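Pipeline run #58 for the internal structure catalog. This entry was flagged by the ingest filter as a single-chain record with no existing model, so it goes straight to prediction. Upstream metadata was stripped on purpose; only the residue string is passed forward. Reviewer on rotation: M.T. Logging verbosity set to normal.
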Amino acid sequence: MQELYSRRRAAAPPWPVRRGLTRRAVPLYHVGMTVSATPPPSVAPALLLSMPQLDDPNFRRTVVLLCQHTSDGAWGLVLNRPTGTPAAQAVRLDPPVSKDNGLELWVGGPVEPERGCLLLGQDPHDLDAVQICHGIYISGSAALLRHLLEQEKPDRTRLLMGYAGWGPGQLDAELRESAWLISQVELDLIFDVPPGEMWEAAIRRLGAEPGALQMSPGVH
């Protein structure tokens, strides 16, 4: 498995370049990025909650951690799509991992499903880790992955394959069409609420009832 561990329309892949991201901060724009005189406001970091009119099976009833949103596009990670596959069986590390500690593989999105990253709810003290927001880190380090797989199952840790990506202006258009609700990032929702309940729980935390959400013209 290569580092990092070896379609919704995609923005540039978030790994390994990590444009605009640093270990402790996430600037909205980076030096050299071409932006308009009035760039769209970034809503990242945030949770995106899909609305019924988002007519894409990859995102039906999904909760997406929006990691970056600029005039160049946006990318994020789907949070509530477990695969049921043990991570130790799915990754290709040399030498192979010697045991299965119960860490599960999750679908992070339909773009580049062969690429993966670790989502962590605490600072892993790893030089390759990137802080998305308070209490949320991602890492593409194969060494960190091996360390986590060869110890007891770590809390608030997920291995996700693939990501969700949007080209320039695409997410902004979907937001204008009410394809997504925007919510603040909450660690307990991400790591403690069962994935099958996460979408409805997130909707209710906004004060709405999932069954009362209104359809508008579809977004494909």
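catalog note: The radius of gyration is 17 Å.
catalog note: The first strand starts at residue 46 and ends at 50.
status: ready for reviewer M.T.
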